[in-house]
Specification:
Elements: H1 4-15, H2 20-26, E1 33-34, H3 35-41, H4 47-59, E2 63-68, E3 74-79, H5 81-84, H6 87-104
Antiparallel strand pairs: 1-3, 2-3
Length: about 110
């Protein structure tokens, strides 16, 4: 069995860093979104980081990439069922941060 450190390391490979969680968060309430929409919603991300993060998230099975055969090319991204299972944990982390902010300002 994997140790907790090994599991945490694997977790961070899948969703760690500055951008991956923000991309998942941007897709939480959408059927799918195009690259340009994600670029606008994930503020400050560069094209290179968005492209690499999308590629990584797709490779890890958290996002689905749908390419349409039309001109100009159209590509949409959506959460896979595995990606959607992260949402309750992300919501819990956001709630934890809200509580921390409240307790630090009281």
């Amino acid at each position: 069995p994997e140790t907790e450190d090994a599991i945490l390391e694997t977790l961070l490979q899948h969703i760690g860093g500055k951008w991956k969680i923000r991309i998942i968060w941007a897709l939480q309430n959408a059927q799918s979104k195009r690259y340009s929409t994600l670029k606008n919603e994930v503020s400050s991300i560069t094209d290179m980081m968005l492209s690499q993060s999308l590629k990584d998230l797709c490779a890890d099975g958290l996002l689905h990439r749908q390419q349409y055969q039309e001109i100009p090319p159209k590509v949409e991204y959506s959460l896979t069922p595995s990606g959607k299972t992260l949402l309750p944990a992300l919501n819990a982390l956001c709630e934890w941060e809200r509580q921390m902010e409240l307790s630090n300002h009281s």
